[in-house]
Amino acid sequence: MGTTYDQATVEKICCRLRGLVQDAFQKHLYTTAIFYADKLASLSHFEPEDLYTLAECYFKNHEYRRVLHLLRQHGNIVGSDERLKLLAAQSLLACKDWEECLRYLEDHGCDEDSVADSKMASAFALLRGRVYEVTENQKEALVWYERAIQLDAYCHEALDRLVGTHVLPLEQEMALLRSLRLHEEDEWLRHMYSAKLAAARSSCGCAAPAGALAAGFAAGAPAGSASAPSLDIAASWWGRGRRRRLRQAFDGELPGTDESSASLLPAPLVRNGDTLAARSTKFFYEGDYESCYQVSKRVLEVDPYHLAALPVHIGSLVMLEKKSVVFYVAHQLVNAHPATAVAWFTVGCYYYMVKKYQSARRFFNKALALDHNFAPAWIAYGHAFALQKESDQALAAYRTASRLFPGSHLPWLFIGMEYVRTNSLQLAQQCLDYSRTLMPTDPHIYNEIGVVAFHRKDYRKAIEFLQQALSLCGAPHEAACTNLGHAFLKEKVYDCALGAFQQAHGLNPQSSAALSGIAFTLQLLDRPDDAIEYYHRSLSINRDDQFAAEMLNYAVQEAAEQPCSMEL
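^ that's the sequence the OP posted. Answer follows.
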């Protein structure tokens, strides 16, 4: 005798199945959930709610084509349910059917005029932005990301893409943050995004006491009366600050934490991973790589796969020349996240550090294949070409970065540096001037403008810009000090030149350029015996320094020709 199932019995079975699906779903047993959800949908004749449950189970199990096939079979239901439309669009995006996804969003009325719920309309706008970004239509992507934020101020994915990523000019980013319509109890969110924006727009100039480094370089001082530059004040200031931050890090405190920043966020969020990632980014842009490393290391100790902290963490390791650590981190990331750009970027950084630039470029290119908008990989890709004097390829990488990240000054700075290297001074000047409009406080820009002026034989202007670079530095910069020393030599202000070279030598005792500069200045001051000592020290570091070798011979001749005073 067969069992009969009346409507009431079927309803009970459906109710029971919904419970089983929910239980399996919460336990992430998606195959089990799919089995029961399929039976549920059949029994309920594909009611919208049960159809959505089955489609969501397919989606969670990464069966995107199956989701699309199911929703096409029930197009009459999908057309009236915004959740199913969103699931279909997300499945097309996951299948990388970019054009089909965009066509679907346009054809099915997925905009704020057709969608009653503003949060749902924001989700559709976000999807459009992602499709346009993947297809390299940056202008439209930014328009739809901004639209997503206007519709829902809590759409983090859109905000995270626009704030602190240099895809917008600074003024637009600030206006965007001011325009967020947040609940009064959620103002901490605005402060958190502001911290990220401030970190990404930091430079060495943010950390330096005004004019501290310029004190000893009086631009208007007469050539004969100028005294040797005194950089002790700024050097001791930076040294104390760096030691204090390092001591805080090792003692378990947070470098750079102050009362004002702590008061803007709820106390537990001050030590949150995203907050610390923003602080480490700020340290990186200020050139304080030790503090950046210590803070980002603390983030990764709590969450080893905090992707927002990884780029600056890797960057600080590269700047600190911690090759073995980069090697270890690269292996960990490739094992854990082989499909992320930052993993292969880290591998490329290791090869970059060991001077295997061709291998480095291969892995940087792999990172960009995974994420075309990963800014650090574009910059590093250009560097790997520039270090092998492949200017055309380096400039192409930097130009792509400038196009993808129009709010960042770094691509234009590196384009200008490459033009300086190839002696295209007019183009270099234009690029550096534009970089300066984007970031007026970056000392590296002023250093390069000073180098351009030096090559144009405008030595007074070179001195002016190099002094400005040093005044903006949070830490005295060896290259700027060396360049300034050469500019003073051209102006025959030998005491100032000697002071600049000595400061550069103090910052890097292994710099043969600084030692050669000291030796040459001493030779011009008619102190050949002292010059000979420094030439020997320079050649002990760099035996291929032809200038030092040649000038050493002249210094020896000059010393031999000097009269010897013999006292009985």
